[in-house]
Structure formats: structure tokens, C-alpha cells
């Protein structure tokens, strides 16, 4: 997958000729054993680093076997250190600014697990966190739904906002947060910002509200008189 994307991106305008920042989200391939995850992430990083403005280390997709185990103490520190070291070495070699690296977490974590991730991020000097991915929970009327995979959209909105607020308070607002999960209108985008998000990310809302939804959200946030603008 990373090789295909690298070839595709190589045909697109780069650097100052690109009209918008490009964030690249990398995760473990389904066929790669969890013991080899760090090597797999590093391979994707090296293939794509020349195209990215920032990287997301996705350790929270519910659709990849064992991926969420990477959020724990047995794997996360060593995985992130491999990427941080590679990023630093590349910056020294090319004499370019180090690329920001953020970690994307699951909404199903408890606060103790989130505390561990925040401590790891601080220790390794990562640049931010993305909260949160899709959920394995099936709240309310969805409790009997047996479909596999993550649930996105409005049902995950409250929990993701709760996590954003917790992270912001735990870090005294010093850690950049990209808020995602259940942003279906401009109000829910504002709620993420009020909770402590620095930026917001759209997925399900983009599908249901159409291609101009990101523009509408951006304009609403830009013209708001709230404190976070």
C-alpha cells in the first residue's frame, strides 16, 4: 500500500507548489505479525517521508488484527522511538526541519491507558495526538448490531469530545490535539475546539454532508467569536 501511494504522490506537485498540507497516516499491514510492527511502520515512513507535511502513527484502527495492542506498554514506546529516531536522523542528514509526528488513539481506552500514552508522547518528544478513531462499542439501539469493524459518526462524538477534554486538561493545553469523531455539523466541530482541540478532522460528516462540508466548518470556525479562535 505505501509503495502504491508513494508512486501516486510522486506524480503530484510537491513542496511550495502544493496547495495544501498533506498528512500521511501509517499503520501496520494486516499480514504483518505484531512483533514486526515497528519495522513495518518504519518501511512505510521511509517510503512516504518525502511527501508528508506531518505523519500520523495509527495504532487504533479496529479493522487490523492486533493493531490496538500497539497502544500498550509492550509495544508503543519502542514503536514510537523507532520512528522518532528515523525522523531525527533524516532531519540531520537532509538539514531540513523535523516532520511533526502525531499518534492516533482509540476512543475505547480508559483514562489510565490514555495517561500512559501521554507520558510516552512526552518522553519521546512527539508533536501531538489525534483523538479519536472509530469505536468497537455499540451504544443504545446499536447494541445488537453484530457487524465487525469500527463505528463512526454521531455515536462516537460524545466520547471523543470527552477524551479531548481530558487530554487538554492533563497536559494543561500544551499538547496539540486534532479532534475527530462525530463531527456532523459546525456546532459539533465547535464543541471539539471548546474541549481543547487545536484542529478538527472530518470523515463521516464529509460523506453525509457532501464535498463542501469542510469549507462550511472552516468558515464557521473562522467567523466564530469564541475564545479558541
Distance between the termini: 37 Å
List the quaternary state of the chains. single chain
How many helices? The count is: 8
Q: How many strands, which pairing sense, and closed or not: the largest β-sheet?
A: 6 strands, parallel
Uncertain segments are none
Number of strands: 6
Based on Cα principal axes, name the global outline.
globular
- The value of Rg in angstroms is 18 Å
% residues in beta strands: 5-15%
Give the strand line-up of the largest sheet.
1-2-3-4-5-6
Description of the structure:
The structure is a single chain. The protein has 229 residues and is α/β, with parallel strands linked by helices. The protein has two domains: 1-102, no CATH class; 134-224, Rossmann fold (3-Layer(aba) Sandwich), CATH 3.40.50. The protein is 41% helix and 11% strand. The protein has helices spanning 2-9, 37-48, 76-94, 111-124, 157-170, 186-195, 204-209, 213-222, and strands at residues 23-26, 54-58, 101-105, 128-131, 177-180, 199-201. Strands 1-2-3-4-5-6 form a six-stranded parallel beta sheet. The mean pLDDT is 91.
Keywords:
Rossmann fold; 8 helices; six-stranded parallel beta sheet; single chain; alpha/beta; 6 strands; 229 residues
Reconstruct the topology from this structure.
Layout (H helix, E strand, L loop, with lengths): L1 H8 L13 E4 L10 H12 L5 E5 L17 H19 L6 E5 L5 H14 L3 E4 L25 H14 L6 E4 L5 H10 L3 E3 L2 H6 L3 H10 L7
Parallel strand pairs: 1-2, 2-3, 3-4, 4-5, 5-6
